[in-house]
Design goal:
Its main location: membrane. With about 290 residues, the protein is mainly α. The longest helix is centred in the last third of the chain and has 29 residues.
Amino acid sequence: MGYLMGVTALWAFSFSLIGVYLAGQVDSYFAVLLRVTLAMLVFLPFLRPSLLRGKQRLALMGLGAIQLGVMYTFFYQSFLLLSVPEVLLFTIFTPIYIALLDDLLFGRFTPIYLVTALLAVLGAGVIRYDGVDSGFWMGFLVVQGANLCFAIGQVGYRRLAADLPPTLAWHNVFGWFFVGAMLVALPAYLLFGNSAALPTTSLQWGVLAWLGLVASGVGYFAWNQGATKVDAGTLAIMNNALVPAGLIVNLVIWNRDADIPRLLLGALIIAASLWLNHWWCQRRQVAVS
């Protein structure tokens, strides 16, 4: 849980940094490529290929390609089709995908996870719903593609970790995750990137460096590690904890308008979903013992 809370605080800054300094100014494919490249460089010095078998390496690369490479491609394109509030609104469905996919991959059905995930979606919706206009369906589908990729990556990582030794030094193998993401990001930039829209200021380069080295490099490693240490319900809920965290950062630093009562109400609903999930897990442990 500590990993997820720490990365939530870290990523809360990322949304505003992208929206204020990069969106509409720097080519999105280049931004994705640079973030993935820098993140990969963080972990390549620690890479120990012998720690994973061939299929395991391919699985980890595949997860990186989906969770980071394809997800970012969808996510950045969504800003060309939707307003920022609409994009944020439509990201709140990720917990539902996580709850359903985790049960599917682990061969079970846990209704309480779906209930708490839906509660987290409700809380995030209370915070972010600003209404939508007509003609938004394509944008909606693009965002759902990003949500689904992010969910598949998290749940797939949990499933892969369950089949590997608990003593595995993940920092010695996580570089494969970013290698997989690079296999998507590089061709996407070469095919669709705009070389005339590269960063032009030191601030933009600095933001990209922070997003690549810290938000992507450290952030995805810590988040996926946290995903293996909590139950699926908690993971699903924490995906929407970013909504109030991101709004608080945006309000405090960039002084953007926010509806404080709605922010508090939505945060309370998300907290209630976490409490309900924790209560159910404790009750199940008592019943089993």
